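Why does residue order matter? Because the sequence determines the fold. Keep that principle in mind as you read this record.
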Amino acid sequence: MALVPGQYIKDLPVDYEGEIFAFMSVPATLGGAEIPPPTLGSWSLFEVADLKWTNGQAPPDFWGFLRAAHILAVREKAAPLVRDWLAAGLKGDAPPLDSPPKCAWDAAAVTWAEASKLEFTPESVESLGDALALSFSGFAMLPKEPVNGLWLFGAETMQGVARTLCENLNCSFFEALWRVPLCVAGHVCAGIVKGQGRCHVGRPKDPADIKIKLDAARAREDAGELHPWQILDPKWNPPTARQKEANPGILVEMESWKNRIAVEGAAVIEEELRGKGMIDV
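Structure:
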């Protein structure tokens, strides 16, 4: 079976500039409204309010967008409003836009939106969606583990992440919930785990590129051709049985590459392989 070393596979695209600005708590601009980066507390409210579009389970609608933006803008002040909204049995409610709000949360959200000049436009939806996605760029670096229970942002998660932030950022529990961007929290957790010596902590690989590289590796093996990692690091990457069967002279070819590397240097050979399209990372 063809195996591809991770360093030959592209990472998923990362919004490095967006991460930097999230670390600096630079707000996103939605029309005239400025929305601070999502925090642990705001994500917990998204989940308890079942705002499905925030995690990609549904397309954005006016009320889902407005409620999410309002939670982000007023942070801890939204919590009692969301609690009372749930107690009134209004989860999932989407009243006509020309009807009066049914509850204090919707009334407060509408008043805030009008005062801040929030705009429900494709551009604003995209900007807020980008800010939400950045929340998980740090956590995505952690090895995947099964999620236990129904709540991703329940009390167990809140205490674990908040405690980690309090211990490592010298912040209060309140600040960990409502002021530290979740993007920062994820990177702090990933940095701690990496510092503990855990393997496979880093930017996730692009699934589409994984498929491309595996298909190309299988094709090379069927043709009895060497992989670039076998050329550049033959000691740890000997030919497979399938390669030897397809090309009985493959060991001679590998020895020839080793001789060239000894004379010309690995950097020169690597550039040659890049020119042939065998390496693109």
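The mean pLDDT is 92.
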